[in-house]
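User: quick one
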Amino acid sequence: MVNQKNKKKTNFRETFKKNRPLFILSLPGIIWFAIFSYLPMFAILVAFKHFKLNGNFIHSFITSDWAGFDNFKFLFSSGDAALIIRNTLLYNIVFIILNIVIPLIVALAINEIFNKQLSKLYQSVLFIPYFLSMVVVSYVVFAFLDPTSGFFNAVLSMFGHKPIQFYMEPKYWPFILTTVQVWKNIGYNMIIFLAAICGLDKSYYEAAMLDGASKWQQTKSITLPMLTPVLVMLLIMAVGGIFRTDFGLFYQVPKNSGALISVTQTIDTYIYRGLTSMGDIGLSSAGGLLQSVVGFVLVVITNGIVKKYDRSQSLF
Amino acid sequence: MKLVKKALGIVAIGMAALALTACGKGSANNDSSKPVHLTWYIDGTPQKDLKKVNKAVNKYIEPKYNVTVTLNQIDWGEYDQKMGTLANSGQKYDLAFSCSWLQSYNYLNNARKGSFLDITKYVDDSSKLKGAINKNFWKGATIDGKLYGVPAQKEISATEFFVWNKALVDKYNIPYKKIQTYAQLEPWLKEVKEKEGITPWFVNESYSNPTEFDQLAVTDGFDLEGNKNKVIDRYDTKKFQSKVKTMRDFVKKGYVNKDASLVTANDVVGRKWLVSSTQMSPLDTATIKDTWKTDVVVSPMTDSVVTNSSATGGTTVIGANTDHPKEAFKLLKAVNTDPKLMNMLAYGIEGVHYKKTGKDTIKWMSAHERYTVPFYMFGNYFNLYHQDGASADEWKILKKYNEDAKASPALGFSFDTSKVTSQIAAMQNVDSEFKKTLNTGSVDPETALANRDKKMKAAGSEKVINELQSQYNKWKKSNK
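Assistant: Done. Structure below.
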């Protein structure tokens, strides 16, 4: 966490010589980003064009008419714009908080397990859902919620309740979607936290134990403060995606049920539903660009706030 | 440093290659003695024997037409996306399958966007091809007066059929051929439900309570049973509204499965049912029997209607950036007029995949499973041999069916959506909110229809209807 700016200005060549192995290690990533993210970047201008094909892509791009901000209108023209933005932001804020708090608690708990084999088993079990496709997850959820033969309704009918038509009742879905999202993603952040905890200097704990600190006191005063950089980094990264949603979660898991649209419609599903049949790449680029710009602005703001409080913990 | 330079060099070479392939104009092969090589993209599960058949096809067409072809088959799930990307990036290819039911590689949108070659001139010059295919196919494939593809001559209408469980039809002596309306259907649903104790009508999420209607923008279009020249929302027609109300009633009475909005067509397998429905042609009964694993009889729910989208259910197009437009068209014409070539593409190699049992009848051989492709990927059905078990006059039946189908007044008219894209995007969203639940009787139709109407208006449906109407009026005037 040494701040680069406080150091004497070094030229690129010296920095490179000093960190040559690190540069070489990052080279594949740099090339990948250059080719797949920076090289095609000019195409974001498609969002401002009435794209029409005329020969190859670059030629079509140059000859297409400029559209100004026309392509962005469709996002706000429907009466549902407020609902869509509300859903997108609220779900994401809840997800960002839960995806930091819950994996952190689980990581702290798993770290305290003495039996290494059991600890590994828990980690793997919690990590597996992360690798499942949302389409598969949607069937798992359906097995629980199926109105006729679902697990929940079977239990309900055992107690003499009437079955619930889950796919018709919007009120349950904020909870269902949040549960599914957290269940699916818990493993990833948990592994990051576990790795960070393992890297902490053991001597702090030894000193604390000598002073008679309890487990809780150790966690509160050593582990958590030492983990803040990781926490802050994860938070800033997550904020960048605040205008994006997991399409599978909001489209596949509710089985594209129209009755649930008031709680499952987000920017991504709106763009998908509205544009698939038209295939207009100008409009879809506009949607994507808006998501990126909002994410970028929020990352800069969050980073700025973090910087104000603690310079050394900001990302850039 | 050396390493970085090297890496940069590699990247630079890569980019240069990319730029070259993207910008370079490949020189067309004008040497007439050398056969021209074409690429052709088709949709479907990649077949094990595709290469073998491809080789045999080349052996046949090279001396006869002086062209060779590579058939590229892309799996169902990926074809649409991949071809859409290919078209948007301006890649070169010669022939490809497009149609009205694909999304990003949709026939109408891509023709408008400029992805396809305008072949009007070629078709007009070839009376043999033009005469071989029913004129309504040509009309349906015409966009703003221009042709961009050759439609496969198959069933011209996308009609929804009642599919009846034959065992129960026989048991209760149901006069299924006469049943078209829900009112005619109800007494049989009631009887079978009471006597068999089953939910008689299996409805799935894609069911749309068919009426004779030509949908041109979301659900707006022309009612073929009402005023044929006035644009209207299908959901505002009396016939549709009474149908969804009856559907709700059927759900309440237990005639229709309650989970209709969540199940797909194939979920019918393993259930007990009397009747269900699907979009098909009169010749598809055998396929249904196969996939539904039940012996069935079928009857159409509505009269057959020819619309632009039903006529372009399978269309072969020429890529706009092709280097060999003439040769590509020559092959396309041959596929539709040369029976030997069409049979080879559709059925495989004689003596390997099938054997001939008569002049134009065939029997599958064991290798058949290594090469089964949908015939509409290629062309004219009427040139195909009859499969074992098919009636010898099947093409006559199909031909009559196509000739008898009612043409929509808007056949040949295509809506230019560029002025109302935002509205249509919003309307698509409203439509998807209500489509499944309304059509499957899962919600109260009165409130849902009112809600839908309110939301559609908020999304700008009136503007779309007006635009559609004025474009149609203009087209009608100039096409009298």
